[in-house]
Design brief:
With 259 residues, this protein is α/β, with parallel strands linked by helices. It has one domain: Zn-dependent exopeptidases (Aminopeptidase, 3-Layer(aba) Sandwich). 34% of the residues lie in helices and 17% in strands. The chain has a seven-stranded mixed β-sheet with strand order 1-3-2-4-9-5-8, sandwiched between helices. It has a two-stranded antiparallel ribbon with strand order 6-7. Strand 6 and strand 7 form a beta hairpin. Helix 4 packs across helix 6.
Length: 259
């Protein structure tokens, strides 16, 4: 099954893994008006996060750039219309025409319709399902040669649960965090903390509200320890290691849901 600017995989699994900011593509009518250099655009996207979906039979990988439409914001804010929407960056050579905006919002609607189809099927198949909403975030905001941002305020994995019903899903959240933090990683363990930098975006809130009691979305922000955010160069070994850690945490959540 495929969407307009994303790929959807379905299987017999109570876990759905998504990478909605992994994409870098702009459709031609958007690219023609975008003035952000490609390397700056890449730095604010979540490259390689689609490589962390393999352990879940259900997955959604988005190829469209968040600079075309941000699926983690409400429909009316899906297009970055001003620098205030996008880290102070100037995006467009001139205001976007209404017909382009309309087409973008129609793509947004198609994505959420496909997402609802997957979640509806999972809700019908399982007493409870969990969505891993996977993102990344930068750690060298001051420049390529600057020290990394303060580690005490920037965990290697930020687990966003701002819209999670902890009475219903607290055990699932704790199972995920504890499994991820216990897994051996680079001679030690991942620094995994909850709601330090991010509490989850629109997609998490949408699922947690629409499927209250049946579905739980955990927003997972991996610090860019797995790549050079200024050059775009990946560290393949770290990408593999993060994927393995997520797979272990997914197995623990899957086991917990099966109790």
């Amino acid at each position: 099954m495929s969407g307009v600017r994303w790929e959807v995989a379905r299987g017999d699994d109570p876990i759905l893994a998504t990478a909605i900011h992994a994409g870098h593509e702009l459709r031609p009518e958007v690219a023609a008006r975008c003035v952000i250099p490609e390397e700056i655009r890449l730095r604010e996207e979540d490259p390689f996060t689609d490589q962390w979906l393999w352990y879940a039979a259900n997955s959604i990988a988005v190829s469209a750039s968040r600079f075309e439409l941000d699926l983690n914001r409400p429909r009316e804010a899906t297009i970055y219309s001003s620098p205030q929407d996008a880290w102070g960056l100037e995006l467009w050579d001139r205001p976007l025409p209404d017909d382009l905006v309309k087409r973008t919002q129609e793509i947004y609607d198609s994505f959420y319709a496909d997402l609802a189809d997957v979640c509806d099927e999972m809700a019908a198949e399982f007493p409870g399902f969990v969505v891993f909403d996977i993102h990344s975030y930068n750690q060298r905001r001051q420049g390529p040669d600057a020290p990394v941002d303060d580690p005490t305020a920037n965990p290697e994995v930020n687990v966003g649960t701002g819209s999670v019903d902890r009475d219903r899903w607290g055990d699932v959240v704790e199972t995920f965090i504890e499994s991820l933090a216990r897994h051996p990683f680079d001679g030690g363990h991942l620094d995994v903390r909850e709601n330090v930098r991010f509490r989850g975006g629109h997609m998490s809130r949408w699922i947690n509200s629409k499927y209250a009691g049946r579905g739980c979305t955990i927003a997972i922000e991996v610090k860019k320890i797995y790549m050079d955010e200024w050059t775009g160069q990946p560290d393949d070994a770290v990408i593999v290691a993060v994927g393995e850690a997520l797979a272990v945490a997914a197995a623990a959540v899957r086991s917990h849901l099966g109790r």
